[in-house]
Write a structure and sequence with these properties.
The structure holds two protein chains of two kinds. Chain A is mainly beta. Chain A is 0% helix and 54% strand. In chain A, strands 2, 5, 6, 10, 11 and 12 form a six-stranded mixed β-sheet that branches. In chain A, strands 3-9-8-7 form a four-stranded antiparallel β-sheet, with no helix packed on it. In chain B, a hairpin with a 5-residue loop joins strand 7 and strand 8. The radius of gyration of chain B is 13 Å and the shape is globular. The model of chain B has no long low-confidence stretch (mean pLDDT 93). Classes of the chains: A mainly beta, B mainly beta.
Chain lengths: 115, 115
């Protein structure tokens, strides 16, 4: 099966707390891409990061960091010192390199950051 | 930077009516994807076009059709609308049919309400 699982449906944190959003994927392909998108209350899908299956380096961008572990098929997303503006639904997505280039999305995690 | 443009942003239709959604990709992008996102759900892939030819097909109802024009914009035509078609419809664009792993950039979406 080719799927993305985001087991956390909703997370609530208090501002300035760190929070990690989990993403676990299943695929038979050896080459693939993983993505994170943010969907704020306004509804648009905002691209955050892309990672290909050959690059297991972790990445940090400001308060955002991503941990890709191929051995556990996970691509987790951490927000450090969360802010109210981080409140959104976050989607993890999987895309292949042949056959079809559509995204397979996880069900999303709704993050609520309380002031 | 220019983004994906979708029109209209909001659309209200009655059951059994038709609707046409338009998408203008990022300049130089040659691939367009359509997704449907129901309330509280993840986006589901409908159909994609690369260089004006259909490149992939997902869970698109037979009542829906789409095409990509010579200027690369795309239209999603929906007929015999049903209440269940009420959703947020996203268009995304990318380069080179997605083969290079290029990220899909999403438009703001068209919110369709069927009464």
């Amino acid at each position: 099966a080719q799927k993305v699982t985001q087991a956390q449906t909703e997370i609530s944190v208090v501002e300035k707390e760190d929070v990690t959003l989990d993403c676990v994927y299943e695929t038979r392909d050896t080459t693939y891409y993983l993505f994170w998108y943010k969907q704020p209350p306004s509804g648009e899908l905002v691209f955050l990061i892309r990672r290909n299956s050959f690059d297991e380096q972790n990445e940090i961008s400001g308060r955002y960091s991503w941990n890709f572990q191929k051995s556990t098929s996970s691509f987790n997303f951490t927000i450090t010192a969360s802010q109210v503006v981080d409140s959104a639904v976050y989607f993890c997505a999987l895309r292949f390199t042949s056959g079809t280039y559509k995204y397979i999305f996880g069900t999303g995690t709704r993050l609520k950051v309380l002031a | 930077a220019a983004g994906v443009i979708q029109s209209p942003r909001h659309l209200i239709k009655e059951k059994r009516e038709t609707a046409t959604l338009k998408c203008y990709p990022i300049p130089r992008h040659d691939t367009v994807y359509w997704y449907q996102q129901g309330p509280g759900q993840d986006p589901q892939f409908l159909i994609s076009f690369y260089e004006k030819m259909q490149s992939d097909k997902g869970s698109i109802p037979d009542r829906f059709s789409a095409q990509q024009f010579s200027d690369y914009h795309s239209e999603l035509n929906m007929s015999s609308l049903e209440l269940g078609d009420s959703a947020l419809y996203f268009c995304a664009s990318s380069l080179a049919g997605g083969r290079s792993g290029d990220t899909q950039y999403f438009g703001p979406g068209t919110r369709l309400t069927v009464l």
